[in-house]
Amino acid sequence: MNPKQLKRVAIILGVVLVLWLTAELLGGGRDDVETAFVLPPLQETDVDSIVFASASDTIALARSGSGWLVNGYEASPDEVSAFFNALADSSEAELISTSALLLARMGVDTAAGTSMKLVNGAEVVAAVVFGKAGRQYDTRYVRRDSSNFVYLYTGGLSRFVQRGVDDWRNKRMLDIEAASLGAVSVRRGRESYTLVQRDSVWRYSTGAAADSAAVRRMLDQYSPLDASGFATEQQADSADFERPDRSVTMLSQSGDTLAALVFDSTAAAFWVQMSPGGTVYRLLQWKVNQMTPADSTLRERG
User: Fold this and answer.
1) 115, 114, 117: which is closest to 48 by C-alpha?
2) How far apart are CA 72 and CA 57, in angstroms?
3) What is the pLDDT of residues 138-178, one digit of tens each?
4) Quick check: 174 and 222 in contact, CB under 8 A?
5) Which residue from 30, 85, 221, 236 puts its CA 20 to 30 A from 205's CA?
6) What are the tens digits of pLDDT across the range 109-125?
7) Nearest to 168 by CA among 90, 47, 72
8) 51 bridge partner residues
9) By C-alpha distance, which of 74, 158, 66 is closest to 116?
10) Protein fold of 31-168
11) Residue 23, SS3?
12) What DSSP designation does 107 have?
């Protein structure tokens, strides 16, 4: 075979190779191409556990009574509801590839992907692997757990894939309406004061008048009060709640304790605990300043 013939054969083989690769990547003309990728629009009552697992972490949500736990902690009802709303809003995804050779490139292989399993009893009702984010907002590569077919998914569900445990945890600390309060005691270092409410009017326990607008702004911080985060086990152990930097005690109209918070300051935030040995929350410094204002800022102006 002369050089001219060899060149012609090489060109033909190159064209065949390109056609084969195109068929592999796009699935054109194949009889085994899966139907369009659709996630089932499940409700909370259809599932009793949700597990996100990657090579570095596992996030496990499990139904507990009327609520949910995430890795043993109380989960946020709002976050769980948002997840199922996103699941219900899921739309069909675009088929991108059918080649196993591209799984790693799109981040949907077992080494880089994050698997999501929705389970009800002993039945796995959905099992998929999410990969890298796409170029467009709210897009992410995804495949079924046992398939090499990769789709570009569009929808809010992709935002839940990379969340950590703290992102799922319930950050709601308190939700106390001012009208239910009878007294509020605040201590900031060596300074302390108590406000009492009678007939919807706030005054100092000494009888001095209080600025009703300023008191209302303070109490609005507790209705509701959401933490910005949580302390790690090491941070919680190092916090000093025996000698807190600040404290707040709230009593009902009948004198029952509705809330008792103690604060330990850090550089830009405070660790906060509501009961001995309980969860240690993180609140930003500006937030705590609004929750525990200086005595002078609450006094009625003459």
Assistant:
1) 117
2) 15
3) 889 999 888 899 999 888 888 898 899 999 999 999 999 99
4) yes
5) 221
6) 988 999 999 999 999 99
7) 72
8) 60, 117
9) 158
10) Immunoglobulin-like (2.60.40)
11) helix
12) T
Report d(CA 156, CA 150) in Å as an integer.
18
Among residues 191, 227, 218, 221, the alpha carbon closest in space to that of 293 is found at: 218
Domain 172-297 has CATH 2.130.10: no
C-alpha span between 213 and 279 (Å, rounded) = 32
Domain locations in the chain?
31-168, 172-297
> How far is residue 239 CA from its own chain's centroid?
25
Name the token pair of 36: 């369009």
The answer to whether domain 31-168 and domain 172-297 are alike in fold is: yes
Three-class SS of residue 122? coil
pTM summary value:
0.81
- The residue count of the chain comes to 302
Q: To 5 degrees, how large is the angle CA 148–CA 42–CA 70?
A: 85
Chain-centroid distance, C-alpha 62: 15
Spatial distance between the Cα atoms of 123 and 51, rounded to a whole number of angstroms: 13
Write out the E strands in 28-154. 49-53, 58-64, 67-70, 73-74, 94-97, 114-120, 123-133, 139-144, 150-154
